[in-house]
Write a structure and sequence with these properties.
The structure holds two protein chains of two kinds. In chain A, 45% of the residues lie in helices and 20% in strands. By secondary structure, chain A is of the alpha+beta class. Chain A folds into three domains: 28-75; 78-228, Jelly Rolls, CATH 2.60.120; 250-369, Tetratricopeptide repeat domain (Serine Threonine Protein Phosphatase 5, Tetratricopeptide repeat). In chain A, helix 6 packs antiparallel against helix 7, helix 9 (323-336) packs antiparallel against helix 10 and helix 10 packs antiparallel against helix 11. Chain B has two domains: 15-111, RNA polymerase sigma factor, region 2, helix turn helix motif (Rna Polymerase Sigma Factor, Chain: A, Orthogonal Bundle), CATH 1.10.1740; 113-189, Winged helix-like DNA-binding domain superfamily/Winged helix DNA-binding domain (Arc Repressor Mutant, subunit A). Chain B is elongated. Residues 1-11 and 111-120 of chain B have low confidence and may be disordered. The chains are: A alpha+beta, B mainly alpha.
Chain lengths: 371, 189
């Protein structure tokens, strides 16, 4: 017999072996099936019946919670924007919001600028006129979104630190002994009495240490603006200069550079920033200082070095938050350095990447001036 | 003990009513319709399970689970006229799970043993036993489609649906199983 024949015969044999599935077994299994179906259906009905009150209760609770949240959003003062027309007001959130980003109280000024207060922050709208707005930043972290293009001065005073704004968005955080200014976009001038102003632009952050008498602002706004404008000419606490023996860390160098910038010592600041960028070129934190180095070099009139620093910043983080600014500044710096070929290339690169960018007008003006 | 002749409850359960009509009635809660479906197809399902398992120790449980699960999912059956392959699909999955459990327990060692005990004619015993012994050594993914097609007579399309694979894969697996069986049975002669 062939193998195929054996297999076929075995198949026929196997097919012939009907399993012992007789009438009795068929009925027995059917009985078990119907019983189990009945039990399953009864169990489902029972579960549904037991779950119904809980589902109803859960739905009721959800309804109540939703109503409470809606009601709270309509009535809670922390959630509402406050429009101030003429009067001097102080806005202090009584209850720190659980989610500051959502529940932060906002002060909407008459010119459309928005002052968003963080938890336990306090500001005092000292002056609001057509040509001048002055806000006293008393404590906490506050975001200022200043409407640009209006013919008025916008000044924020935090102790003896005065921030003059053209049109920008920035943060000011004030605690017991320090004021920190962080610029999101635009340009501000930070000044203390008796010192020359420091210009901050997008990505800049400046931290200033307050004198002992400025550390804590009074809780009640002073009625006399002059009284609250007392200034301390003391410079901020100087960061320790990197010692000659121990190699300073990145943080040491950055603190010392900030201190030098606050003092107006651009040369020292540039040296410290250059050292930081050279030594920590692999560190992602070198990105911001590299950009700052470009700006310091611009202040010093070393435009070629500034352009190099800006280009280096772009190289460190091509898609970083300062990338657009760095590319534009690099183009403008190359122009000021007389390197017109590089200026044109950098400008074309910027315009290609950011056709609607914030610096398009400046870059185009620069291109128009190219020989 | 000889092979017992099957004695169905009725020769044509459900009369001349089509599978599709029975399914529609069962979905609507007609208990008699579901019973007719069971009586019409339980034997086929039991046969497939038995040949795959190699014994009927778990047969009742698997048939029961197959039809209980079918009763719960009958409304989702897209093609009510093809209720038999659908039932086999459920049975295949349940049997597979049972085999996995058995494997863990070493239960397959005694697989296929029942058939030899039920064969009364010694002349018929050898080929079937040899095939059973060869089948046990064939991987499950090859054995199941082969059994469903060659022994149970399922259409290839239905086997593919039951096994959850494509028609081409089923054909390939059946052919592979066939080759293995021929090789083993040939070597055993």
């Amino acid at each position: 017999m062939s193998e195929d024949g054996a297999l076929e015969r075995a198949c026929r044999d196997l097919r012939a072996r009907t399993p012992a599935w007789d009438d009795l077994r068929e009925r027995r299994v059917l009985g078990r099936i119907e019983a189990q179906i009945d039990v399953t259906r009864a169990a489902r009905r029972s579960i549904a019946a037991r779950a119904m009150p809980w589902v109803a209760a859960a739905a009721l609770i959800m309804l109540c919670l939703t109503g409470w949240v809606l009601l709270r959003s309509l009535t809670t003062p922390e959630m509402a924007s406050v429009t101030v027309a003429d009067d001097i007001v102080a806005v202090t959130p009584s209850n720190p919001p659980a989610i500051p980003a959502v529940a932060a109280p906002a002060l909407v000024l008459a010119d459309g600028s928005v002052v968003s207060l963080g938890a336990s922050a306090e500001v005092n709208l000292r002056e609001q006129a057509a040509n001048r707005i002055v806000i006293e930043h008393r404590s906490g972290r506050v975001h200022y979104d200043v409407r640009p293009g209006l013919p008025r001065a916008f000044v924020v005073a935090a102790a003896d630190v005065e921030v003059t704004v053209v049109g920008t968005a920035f943060w000011i955080a004030r605690d017991a002994g320090r004021v920190r200014v962080t610029v999101e976009h635009g340009r501000v001038e930070v000044a203390r009495a008796g010192t020359s102003p420091t210009v901050l632009t997008a990505g800049d952050e400046l931290e200033l240490t307050l004198g002992p008498d400025q550390a804590a602002a009074p809780r009640v706004p002073a009625p006399d603006p002059a009284g609250s404008s007392r200034v301390s000419a003391r410079p901020r606490r100087r960061a320790p200069e990197p010692s000659a023996t121990a190699r300073p860390t990145l943080d040491d160098l950055l603190a010392a550079a900030d201190d030098a910038r606050a003092r107006g010592d651009a040369t020292r600041a540039a040296a410290l920033l250059q050292e930081l960028v050279d030594r920590f070129s692999e560190d992602p934190r070198a990105y911001g200082p590299c950009f700052q180095l470009g700006k310091v070099e611009r202040i010093r009139g070393r435009h070629s070095a500034a352009a190099t620093a800006f280009a280096r910043a772009v190289g460190l983080a091509p898609s970083g938050s300062l990338s657009e600014d760095a590319r534009a500044e690099a183009a403008l710096s190359w122009f000021d350095a007389g390197r017109f070929d590089r200026a044109r290339a950098a400008a074309d690169d910027y315009l290609g990447r950011y056709p609607d960018g914030a610096h398009v007008a400046r870059v185009r003006r620069m291109l128009d001036q190219l020989p | 003990m000889g092979i017992r002749a099957a004695q169905p409850l009725s020769s044509t359960p459900g009369g001349s009513t089509s599978d599709a009509d029975l399914v529609a009635a069962a979905v609507g809660g007609d208990r008699a319709a579901f019973r007719a479906i069971y009586l019409r197809h339980a034997r086929h399902v039991a046969s497939a399970i038995t040949r795959w398992l190699g014994d009927d120790a778990d047969l009742d449980d698997i048939v029961q689970d197959t039809f209980v699960r079918a009763s719960q999912r009958l409304a989702s059956l897209r093609s009510p006229a093809h209720v038999r392959p659908w039932l086999v699909t459920i049975a295949v999955r349940l049997t597979h799970s049972r085999i996995v459990i058995r494997r863990r327990r070493g239960g397959l060692l005694r697989a296929f043993g029942w058939q030899a005990a039920r064969i009364s004619d010694p002349a018929l015993r050898a080929p079937a036993d040899e095939l059973s012994a060869a089948l046990i050594s064939v991987p499950e993914d090859l054995r199941v489609p082969w059994l469903l097609h060659r022994i149970e007579g399922e259409r290839l399309e239905d086997v593919a649906a039951s096994c959850g694979v494509s028609l081409a894969t089923v054909k390939r697996r059946i052919a592979a199983c066939e080759r293995k069986l021929e090789r083993r049975m040939g070597g055993g002669r």
